[in-house]
Amino acid sequence: MSALNKAKGFKQSRSGTYLSMAGTAFSAVGVAKQIKKARSEQDTLRLIDAAASAVAIVTGLAILYRELKRLGDDDVLLG
Q: For residue 54, which of 30, 37, 38, 36 has the smallest C-alpha distance?
């Protein structure tokens, strides 16, 4: 298997899934700051927006976790 084919399969690998999960979790920092700012300014609309973003992050992490469980032993980069 060539290096290019391995690179193309990275997104469907265990390592790629972990990297995606880390990126998604890192975005939670921005949402936490947005919630803190919305609360201090008592801005209900920004608070709703931040809550919707938080729900999207949780959903994204759940989907990535499910994908990680599906990968199991048939990892693209290992075989």
A: 30
Give the residue from 21, 26, 30, 16 showing the smallest Cα distance to 59.
21
Q: 0.90 exceeded by the pTM?
A: no
User: 3-class SS at 23?
Assistant: helix
**Tokens representing 45?**
């609309």
Q: Tell me how far the alpha carbon of residue 24 is from its chain's centroid.
A: 3
Q: What is the distance between the alpha carbons of residues 25 and 31, in angstroms, rounded to a whole number? A: 10
What is residue 11's predicted lDDT score, i.e. its pLDDT?
59
Cα angle: 55, vertex 58, 48; to 5 degrees:
20
DSSP state of 74: -
